Amino acid sequence: MNTLKHLAIIMDGNGRWAKERGKIRSFGHVAGAKKLVEITKHASRIGIEYLTLYSFSTENWKREKVEVDFLMKLIEKFLKQELKNLMDNNIRFKVIGDMSKTSKSLQKRVNLTIEKTKNNTGLTQILAINYGARDEIVRAINSIKKEKITEEDIQNALDTHTLPDVDLMIRTGGEQRLSNFLLWQSAYAELIFTDTYWPAFSTQELDIMIEKYQKIQRRFGGI
Ligand code: IPE
Ligand code: IPE
Ligand code: MG
Fold first, then answer.
1. How far, in Å, from the CA of 13 to the mean position of ligand 3?
2. Which residues make beta-bridge pairs with 54?
3. Is 60 labeled as catalytic in the residue annotation?
4. I need a labelling partner for 161 at 20 to 30 A (CA). Which of 21, 90, 153, 186 fits?
5. Which residues are 131's β-sheet partners?
6. CATH number of the domain within which 41 lies
7. Is 208 left (phi over 0), alpha (psi -120 to 50) or beta?
């Protein structure tokens, strides 16, 4: 049976979920944030060590300003509300992505949450904010000051340098693509896609996916 150390989730389908209910997209994002709390708690309960969640991509700036502003504010509000929950559940918080392009108040909130939760020893929850795998790799390479760069050098310079490789990558919302998420770290990840929109995703569906993952024969190029 495969162990599941690092689970990554592309939380997609908030907008379509809202539209189907005759609501505006932001309604879906709020429901999506609630789902994130529920799934994080469940992941922590079942003993997953690292949970990385795609919250805002380097490409999401292409959206209308009102939606971008709403999402950024929502992440900040979410972090403020969640601090108690993170502490109560012994969850450590981390972030990946280029935070320098986000607002000062969000940066402050992120740093505070990292600092307050740094000694927690349970699940590590990692939010990907203004994250793009290509951007991450370029930033990593530019930070390495040597001529002959190895895989290990790049690995150690990525935002995820303290995390193990992704074991299982889940994408909700029906699309079967990675949308620039953790390209390096998912080289040997198992991929599971579902049509379920993120706000409609459930702990039951996650459990079924994990059962499926546990039975897969992971060969890593061997036999
Ligand atoms: C995912 O839901 C959340 C973010 C990308 C921030 P979407 O907003 O992409 O929802 P759809 O895919 O348009 O339904
Ligand atoms: C991926 O979803 C990014 C996040 C979930 C944050 P998108 O909705 O942005 O991806 P595309 O545009 O369908 O590839
Ligand atoms: Mg989408």
1. 5
2. 10, 128
3. yes
4. 90
5. 57
6. 3.40.1180.10
7. alpha
Whether 85 sits among the annotated catalytic residues: the reply is no
Q: Give domain status of residue 45, yes or no.
A: yes
Q: Structure tokens of 109?
A: 């909130």
> Residues 27-77: pLDDT tens digits?
999 999 999 999 999 999 999 999 999 999 999 999 999 999 999 999 999
What sign does the dihedral 135-140-144-148 (CA atoms) show?
negative
- Token reading at 160: 């995820």
The answer to whether residue 212 sits within a structural domain is no
Q: What is the mean pLDDT of residues 104-117?
A: 98
Q: Which structural domain range is residue 175 located in? A: 6-202
Distance CA 169, CA 120 (A): 24
- % of the chain surpassing 90 pLDDT: 100
User: Across residues 96-122, what is the average pLDDT?
Assistant: 98
Give the mutation target among 10, 11, 14 for probing the ligand 1 site: most ligand atoms within 8 A of CB.
14
Q: How many domains does the chain have?
A: 1
How far does residue 30's CA lie from ligand 2's centre (Å)?
A: 16
Helices (H), the chain: 14-20, 25-45, 65-88, 104-117, 133-143, 151-157, 203-215
- Say what the pTM is: 0.98
